[in-house]
Sequence to fold (191 residues):
Amino acid sequence: AGDFVYMLSNASSNIIVRKINLNGGTLVWEYTYTGAAGGSGPDTGTDITFDAMAGQILVCGSESLSSSSASTSIVPLILKISPQGTLIESVTIPNEIVSSSSANNILCLPNGKVWTVGTIGTTAYGKSGFVSEYLTSCVNDTTIVTETACNEFEYEGTAYNTSGIYYIPFQNTAGCDSIVALDLTILPTDS
Fold:
């Protein structure tokens, strides 16, 4: 993760992630997760890692969820955070949890696969145990397309008539948000 370290802490029922610059120990940013699901209990972070393939910080832990019957369940939670300190996605691992559960550790493999492991408390079926969950790591693509055309160039249904670099969002085959950088040179035609 370069000359930075990512630190995880818990305070006031929230999960806190900090990016610290190793050259001088200064705080670059701080992100606080207050819970997306409206739970009344604490949200807890238990492990943090940097996914170099996807370029994001991954945090696992547990989130308190409130149900329509006013009972509270604690379910495994994964947070995906950008290197700039913004939440990309929060994912809970759903099941029929009645008592507490947690994602305790998170691991990014060199092939881009992300796994989390943890425990499941007593379920509605009276079962408890250990859970491992495979999470697809989304790798965002940036494709550079260089083109030269006379007067006008059409790309993906859009006509361009001015030289420049255009950034065009798309979803790659894995369903991840990606960008095409169209480096376009428009040549004038002689009369």
Remarks:
- Residues 122-131 have pLDDT under 50 and may be disordered.
- The longest strand covers residues 56-66.
- The CA atoms of residues 75 and 107 lie 19 Å apart.
- The two ends are 55 Å apart (CA to CA).
